Task: structure prediction
Amino acid sequence: MKVLMVNKFLYPNGGSETYIFKIGEYLTAQGHEVQYFGMEHAGRIVGNHAECYTKDMDFHTGKLQKLLYPFQILYSTDAKKKMRAVLEDFQPEVVHLNNFNYQLTPSVIYAVKEYEKAHKQKIKIVFTAHDYQLLCPNHMMLNPNTKEMCERCAKGKFSNCTKGNCIHGSKVKSLLGSMEGYLYRLLKTYQYIDTIICPSEFMKEKFDANSLFAGKTIALHNFIDKVGIKADTKGVEKSSYVLYFGRYAEEKGIQTLLNVCKKCPEIPFVFAGNGPLESAVNEVENIQNVGFQTGEKLVRLIRNASFTIIPSEWYENCPFSVMEAQMYGTPVLGARIGGIPELIREGETGELFRAGDADDLQRKLTDLWQDTKKVEQYTANCATISFDTLAEYCEKLKKIYTC
Result:
């Protein structure tokens, strides 16, 4: 099978990149051919035989004000032309879209349709929704100014993005986001996508509420990329601390968590991460900030924690932090929002609290901290948790490719 992975970034940058690299590695090891299309970048680690990539575009450096950028954001003739060249050279059976809006634009979909028409050959178009971009121009369904969850654009009323200055607080960027949404709604471009993979049932429900996507969606939780990561609590000595690991940002519920930490001076917390609220984290006396951690150091922090907290205040999709904690044998106290509740067996491997509710968080936090027997039971139950391995996930993915 020949699979073309499409993603704006072709270097390690975040979750979607890890996703395409891992899947590509597995499929290649299984004898399939995988190539990649996206932006050129000095750090690019994957590619295609035609050596065709779009120019690197960074919208966080002020370059958005350049004359041609607004047009390139909406529709990229360069991306379409180069995508077509890759298709002609590789002749894939499947095009697997990931993050493509703004930098690559949906023009890549039209390249596929033109190729199909010219060759009279059907290419399966699969899209993995790593966020809510097709429903919300700022991709989070979160108004960054009011800090409230917002679904006003979800069914196609994209003017709300402009009204709320929802993209980086910029009227210009928000207007472009609205224009992009309306343009591709008018053209019905996304009707050409055969299957939309939603990493949570919650996200699937949001997509299904839009008539353009209903009937195309499949809920498929993310994979744990380490085979044999199953929780093994034997020989692991739990330490007396509560762990938060992730980004120190408002939408992650950090401010609410910090307020609760201050009210619980008897509980020691360890924070592993970084982000815009790091200075606020450092001001709380009972928090040890160990900074961003990876690899074995992070694994030890997770395994040794009494339990972890996931206090998000936006529609989290399928956070690896929830899955990893339980797979490493550590219970999770998570916010009841987005896809988080799907990943925790409440009352067995963790607890849930109302997102953004400091009182509920404090109550659940202190109860769990004081009830060591419950934590021990939850820890033991984590050994029975099961999430797809990379191999299991890819076998399901191959069925989606060929059905």
The mean pLDDT is 92. The longest strand covers residues 242-247.
